[in-house]
Design a protein that fits this description.
Layout (H helix, E strand, L loop, with lengths): L8 H14 L3 E8 L6 E8 L1 H6 L9 E6 L2 E8 L2 E10 L3 E2 L5 E10 L4 E10 L5 E10 L6 E3 L2 E4 L2 E5 L3 E2 L4 E9 L6 E13 L2 E6 L2 E5 L6 H15 L4 E2 L1 H16 L8 H9 L8 E5 L9 H8 L1 H8 L5 E14 L15 H7 L4 E14 L1
Parallel strand pairs: 5-11, 6-16, 18-20
Antiparallel strand pairs: 1-2, 3-4, 4-5, 7-8, 8-14, 9-12, 9-13, 9-15, 10-11, 15-16, 15-17, 19-21, 20-21
Helix pairs in contact: 4-5, 6-7
Length: 374
């Protein structure tokens, strides 16, 4: 009798390893319900033993999935093996991210004047039939009104604009909105435009994600150099960096930010103590709040809304500069207001704008103190 060959040990080990890392044999189930909704369901998935034991490998659930809860639909968002977020999707039967129907051509979140954002979203009809009733929404930190229940984030996208009537095949639509800037400084953000509409009476939701650093790099020495290069170009003669003026700028930040309610508080006292009575006469300062502006767009903002500050930077009697970057409170002036630039030092800022009928809000901000000297 011919002996039956035995499996080699190596082959057994390989088979076990393959099963451990590649075979989705461990079942997962996650109950899904929406607060205030009578419907509920369960989402089933499977993962590899390596994921179940070590957290390594593909997760058991997709990142997002449309679920039916009674007469309604919802989008369930998963993080690994748990339900992380939910979003109302409308009546049962709505399509989620259908292919070849629509896409977000572009989405931009850019800085606007005085702590506001410009939101611009452009969508295009990819299909062969018109899209009816297209409306665009946006989910973004500090913009959409999300809440939390039972450890699950309830996503509530905010309406940006509608396209009015139909979007014909191949056609596009652009919606815009201005909103207060509540984005975290110097961090990457994710934002999600969402299109809701219907084709031949069949409703759909299309959601697309974007990520970017906002603002890129933030205000730092590299930012200041790029900004001062633009100032020098506008001046025609460059300003020379002076490290002693840097020290004075730091002193001015500490004094001014401690009593931010009064414009240029303590300037004469600080200059006299630091430079002496005679030298102090030729020194001036710029207290600037770049916010989310880039060093390439901030000069244009100053030239349009802070003309006095911009003209001082261009004044050729000054040949040297120093700077300091700090973080402290400042007054944000709400749009509209008849004036945005204070006319001098020693002014009670909130009272000044209140007398003009303008609204101010105290917010944390980056301060850029620039000191100029002959």
């Amino acid at each position: 009798m011919r002996p039956i060959p035995r499996l080699k040990t190596t082959g057994v080990v390989i088979a076990v390893v393959l099963v451990f890392f590649l075979a989705p044999i461990v079942p997962y189930v996650e109950p899904v319900s929406f607060p205030g909704s009578s419907g509920s369901t369960e989402v089933w998935g499977a993962a590899t033993p390596s994921y179940a034991l070590l957290g390594y490998g593909p997760a058991p659930f997709p990142q997002s999935q449309l679920v039916t809860l009674g007469n309604h639909s919802a989008i369930a968002y998963f993080s690994g093996s748990r339900l992380a977020a939910m979003e109302h999707a409308g009546p049962a039967g709505v399509q989620f991210n259908p292919g070849g129907v629509v896409w977000v051509q572009d989405a931009e979140v850019t800085s606007f004047d005085f702590g506001f954002l410009n939101i611009t979203i452009r969508i295009q009809n990819l299909g062969l039939r018109p899209i009816d009733g297209a409306a665009v929404y946006l989910s973004m930190l500090g913009y959409s009104a999300n809440s939390t229940a039972g450890g699950v984030v309830l996503i509530q996208p905010k309406f940006v604009g509608d396209c009015g009537g139909q979007i014909l095949p191949g056609g596009d639509c652009t919606v815009t909105q201005t909103a207060q800037n509540l984005l975290p400084a110097n961090k990457s953000i994710n934002f999600y435009p969402e299109v809701r509409g219907s084709v031949n009476g069949a409703p759909f939701i299309y959601r697309q994600g974007f990520a970017e650093s906002y603002p890129t790099g933030g205000v730092g020495p590299v930012w200041v150099k790029a900004f001062m290069d633009r100032v020098d170009n506008a001046r025609g003669s460059p300003l020379t960096h002076n490290s002693t003026l840097d020290q004075f700028a730091a002193l001015r930040f500490n004094t001014s930010s401690a009593t931010y309610q009064i414009s240029d508080f303590g300037f004469e006292n600080d200059t006299t103590r630091f430079f002496g009575p005679e030298a102090a006469k030729g020194v001036t300062e710029e207290l600037l709040f770049p916010g989310v502006y880039s060093p390439y767009t901030f000069p244009g903002f100053l030239a349009a809304y802070a003309v006095g500050h911009w003209q001082t930077l261009l004044d050729e009697q000054y040949t040297q500069f120093g700077f300091y970057i700090g973080h402290g409170p400042y007054y944000q002036v709400a749009i509209p207001c008849s004036i945005y630039e204070l006319p001098g030092a020693g002014i009670n800022i909130s009272q000044f704008f209140s007398n003009l009928g303008c609204t101010t809000t105290v917010l944390p901000s980056t301060w850029l103190v620039i000191v100029l000297a002959p």
